[in-house]
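**Archive record**
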Amino acid sequence: MAPVLTSPLVSTQWLADHLGADELIVLDASVHTAGTGLQTTWQTARDAYEQRGHVPGARYADLVEAFSTPDAPVPFTRPDAERFESAAGELGVTNGSTVVVYDDSVGEWSARLWWIFRSFGFDSVAVLDGGFTKWRDEGRPVRVGALRTAPAPTSQTAGEPAAFLAGEERALWADHDRVLRAVSGDEPASLVLAAPESALGTEHPPIVPGSTTVPVDAIVDPTTNAFLRRPALEQAFASVLDADEIVTYCGIGSAACADALALTVLGHDKVRVYDGSLLDWWRREPEALAS
């Protein structure tokens, strides 16, 4: 029987207690970046997963390729249902699995994959609070090398592997038109920028007008990478918590998912992530690039 989740976040102790449980799938969703602003580049962290280590039994989930749409105009554009099913299924995920995701950064990449799973109706998924940094620094076991075989899917019918099927996509994403309606006031929403200024660079086009900035590095503990406790999160988001709808965004839609995770922990039930975020906004708003 798969472990039961009671929160979008699980502690390192929870994972240690359940590691190896039937139908528990642990995914490393780390992505490594270089540069800032419009010069940012992204690459898979598979080498670090294999050479520097990972949680024992964890499989590497490739957000750069497998869980994105590589030929889309903006990096990390979310996958369609067919691509998502294929990527998740290849990692051994079934509809009966419990999935725990982590990364080796401040949680933005694991939150991104968590958001993608939820957007396709899969709720038995959580983010490891503090990620690999906290796990490693606590002296918990680390495995080096590639995981050669995927966890065996549970059979639904004798002799047949269980399929993984995505549910109908939920309204957890915002597009350019939705953000424009928020800016104009035609469909109000609080706009929250999750990208730290350091990630945008010293020179960049204007951000979305009317935004409140709650950078991801202001909602996690700088030592452990764990999310701040509820009172501190409430304080960080105090100016937007009463909004009927909140749209989070960043550079490309990763840190935005960390803010969305924090807001979900606080109980806000109408949060959307602007997929493509500022890269999409800047390419669609020529006047922003001309400023």
